């Protein structure tokens, strides 16, 4: 420090577009939201250099840590156009924890990363509050995060959001394609909207200008297009964990329907000797998907390769446990139905 010079009229970090004060204000505001998600395993408080989490390894014979990272994609552009950031944080948590449970893992904590062209404390406070709400729904803690102000690289209104999550599962209880067998039933957890996937295509065909977001989502809709596109993702992880507790080994595999749609994601839980046959008549496809198809126009096979079309998650279970799985899901607040079955085949997803 002794060699640093005293300079009159010196430039500051704020002159370069980065506000240290605004960043500190964001941390102050979000501390309460983050603390509302705390679990007993959390050590320390928000604001340190790293988050601390005391895993109780004695609870497990052979614990396997499961990690995932994701974002919410171009759904953020809809949020930016509307100036509404209260739901995309829930989406982030859903994308993270619902991937973790596909391995059978209990989600433990989430870290977030927000990049912006200019820190706006009011905007970020709402955004982080949404992440905290998602964490409370998923029964995980928001262990920490980072807000990065990228002045000169991102426009002042620019924003990107990503996250990381960690979970744990007993090795012998891990879910995998090897558990799926011919005769299994496929139970679908319904999704009322797009979740966070396919928005580049959805925006291209639906969002003609900013004003279009204020018009009805489709003919006869009670919601605007903006409201429809910002529906927060349902968080299925607690429901899957409830199925594991009640049905045990009767739950074989779980597919989270994200990018790649029904076809691409259900294929990920199949071994090369079986096919998944999904009957689209066994669940309701929300009207917003038909509107995308009409306005595109988008072919039926492309729709099921890009969008969830009303299925947020597909669970392969013993055939004799299918109705119990549906009942348990509904008891957890998740609409569900038997949507198909597993047959002998070659690892394909057949849509009927």
Task: Please summarize what this structure is.
This protein is α+β, with helices and mostly antiparallel strands. It contains 11 helices and 12 strands. 32% of the residues lie in helices and 23% in strands.
Word description of this protein:
With 352 residues, this protein is α+β, with helices and mostly antiparallel strands. It has two domains: 14-173, PurM-like, N-terminal domain (60s Ribosomal Protein L30, Chain: A, 2-Layer Sandwich), CATH 3.30.1330; 177-351, Phosphoribosyl-aminoimidazole Synthetase, Chain A, domain 2 (Alpha-Beta Complex), CATH 3.90.650. The protein is built from eleven helices and twelve strands. The strands form three sheets. Strands 8-10-7-11-9-12 form a six-stranded mixed β-sheet. Strands 3-6-4-5 form a four-stranded mixed β-sheet, with helices on one face. α1 (20-35) packs parallel to α4, α3 (88-100) packs parallel to α4 (121-138) and α7 (237-247) packs across α11 (322-331). The longest helix is centred in the middle third of the chain and has 18 residues, at 121-138. The N and C termini lie far apart (71 Å).
